[in-house]
Amino acid sequence: SEYLPEEIGISKFVYEMDKIINVPMLKVHPSTVVTFCMKNLKGCMRGEDKIKFHRLDLQKAIVELNKLVKPSINFIDGTKAMQGTDHNNGDVVDLRLVFCSKDIVAVDSVASYCIGIKPNSIRLIKLGKEEGIGESNLNNMEITGVSLEENRVKFELPEEAMSRRFPNLRILKKGACSACTANFMDGLAFFVSERKTDTIV
Q1: If you placed Cys at 76, which of 8, 84, 99, 145 could pair as Cys (CB 3.0 to 4.6 Å)?
Q2: What is the chain's alpha carbon radius of gyration, rounded to the nearest angstrom?
Q3: CA dist., res. 186 & res. 171, Å (int)
């Protein structure tokens, strides 16, 4: 595929195991808005190839990876989820939800909706639907369990958190590598957490 590096290393366990169970934590992310089941499959790859994804079109590369690695079932652990500036050390939310589906796009879509984001506004999910990997329209799904509306909350996204903390900060990222953008956001969040201040000199 033109959207993948010429060569990528995928764990041999992907091909040796009878079943793959995909279980990410529910978190927001500066590069992909959310980091759920579709993006979690990057964990099957060599570290150097993850960096290559960021130098290409990250979302399209992840979609192509989802064509190669197909979990038998996908869970999103939203018992404790993460919102805000940093997808590694963000604000923990006691969401108390677990999402599960054989359809990787559908499970990401339902979880996105539950944290206040329209699934098709997330490019990764939209591309997954367009490429036939799964369903993103909640009206076309049979959803069981608790009521989505009664459990829907609004998560703060990384750029929203940055705008709140630093109202005069403008991030100009047109054409920037998605990894560089994410690392910048992580670094800024770390700076704030270490110094317990929102002042940048």
Answers
A1: 99
A2: 17
A3: 13
Q: What is the pLDDT of residues 35-54, one digit of tens each?
A: 999 999 999 998 888 888 87
- Please tell me the distance from the alpha carbon of residue 104 to that of residue 74, in angstroms, as a whole number: 6
Low-confidence ranges of the chain (pLDDT < 50): 197, 199-201
Q: What is the DSSP letter of 155?
A: P
Quickly count: other Cβ atoms within 10 Å of residue 163's Cβ. 15
Q: Are 80 and 90 in contact (CB under 8 A)?
A: no
Residues 112, 115: Cα–Cα separation, whole Å: 5
Q: Which helix (H) or strand (E) holds 110?
A: helix 104-114
SS3 label, residue 124: helix
- Give Cα 42 distance to the centre of its chain: 11
Q: What's the pLDDT score for residue 179?
A: 66
Indicate the pairing of strand 73-83 with strand 21-22.
parallel
Residues 124/132, Cβ–Cβ less than 8 Å: no
DSSP conformational letter for 181 = H
Q: Give the model's pLDDT for residue 98.
A: 97
CA distance 112 to 36: 9
Burial label for 150, CB within 10 Å (0-12, 13-18, 19+), is exposed
Instruction: Please report the pLDDT score of residue 178 as a whole number.
Output: 66
Residue 165 CB neighbours (<10 A)? 16
Helices 178-195 and 47-55 sit at what angle, rounded to 10 degrees?
A: 110
